[in-house]
Every structure is written in C-alpha cells, then in structure tokens.
Design goal:
By secondary structure, the protein is mainly β. The chain is built from 1 helix and 15 strands. The strands form 4 sheets. It has a 4-stranded mixed beta sheet with strand order 3-2-1-4, with no helix packed on it. The protein is globular, with a radius of gyration of 24 Å. The protein starts with a helix and ends in a 14-residue tail after the last strand.
Length: 233
Amino acid sequence: MKTKLVVLIALVMVVCICLAGCSYEMPEIERVYDISYENIYVDAETGVMYLWQTADSKGGLTVMLNADGTPKVYNKDVNTYGNVYNIASENIYVDTETGVMYLWQAGHYQGGLTVMLNADGTPKIYNKDASTYENVYNITSESIYVDTETKVMYLWRTGYAKGGLTVMLNADGTPKIYNKDTNTYKNVYDITSEIVFVDKETGTMYLWQAAYYKGGLTVMLNANGTPKTLNNN
C-alpha cells in the first residue's frame, strides 16, 4: 500500500511540474535603448554623424540617418548628446577605383567600418587637395568579398582582435560590382563559405563575416541597390 501511495504521489508531482512548465511564459526583456551614453563621431567636412557602439570586446559603427533616410547632420545648437567627437584622429580608407571613402573606428578589441556619406546622402569622394584628414589609406591590402550571385562587393577590414564589414559603393551610390577585367585588388574572395542571415519577416539577407575575435555584419544588396532577399537572388 505504501509503495502504491509513493508512486501516486510521484506521478502527481510529475504532472504538476509538466503543467507548470507548459504554462510558463518567458518574461519580456526590453532590448531597445536610447543612445544618450554612446559615442557619436562627426565628419567635420560634411557634418554627417556616425554612431559608435561598444560592449566589452565588441564594437559596431554606422552612419546615422534622419526619419526620411537622409544622413543626420550635426547641429551644435540643437544637439542633446554629450559624447560627440570629430573623426580627425580616426582612420579613413579610400577605394582607389571609385574614390569612395570608408570610416574605420577601432577601440580596445573593438572595430567598426562604414561607408562615408555627404549630407545629401551620396557617397563621400576623396579629394586629396581638399581633405583635412591625415590618416587616409587605400584599401589595397584589405580583403574584398564578392557575392557570386549578384557580383556586389563587400569590404572587410580587420585589426588585432577587431573587424568591420560594409557593402562597397560607386560614386553615384549604387553597389560596386566586381569586374575581373578592371579589378586592381588582389585579396578578392567569394562568400561561398561565409554565413548569411535572413530576416524571416522580410526575406532580407545579411552577410556575416567572422575571424578570430573579429566580426562584421552588413545588409546584402542586389546590383540595382535594392536589398537582396531569398525571393530575388
């Protein structure tokens, strides 16, 4: 009798645990924050603002946009952020084939890369006679990845334990397309072995490039500049 009672109690406990497990709901976790405490970098030549986000040994960099999609331009009279710096001491990389400029931001074990824009949204083109920046380099020794389906090119910049990835653009803002007959760069690779992430709600694809303690992420584009999706690749 005692044995049957013990077994019955054990069964009741199992049922209760299962029911409790089925009714448990994951708590909602707030993942949206304002950027009041983040660092913002300003291109003193154009006024365009760039957001730099870091956490421990991780970093990311992107151009800031207004609600209408135009680049956000710094205005000291209305600015509400405290951590605003110019990019005078940062490194800028130039695509010698197009003249398009890319901003590289690096910290301790942190890195980020983004194309630079003018206030009107067009890519910023390097002009050595007018440039006020000293740390300007070409991308000859950097790695370039090509989407073999669209031929769109992606620039991968790394440093010690830091990395950044961005789509490459032409001077008119269209994605740069790989042409083996005119290409002047040596470190060009396809993305066959890389990881692609897909937004299941939109189908939009994102390219993830990773190496030892380095990582970079960017949206993938078609040759006409539209986002690449699983339905149109």
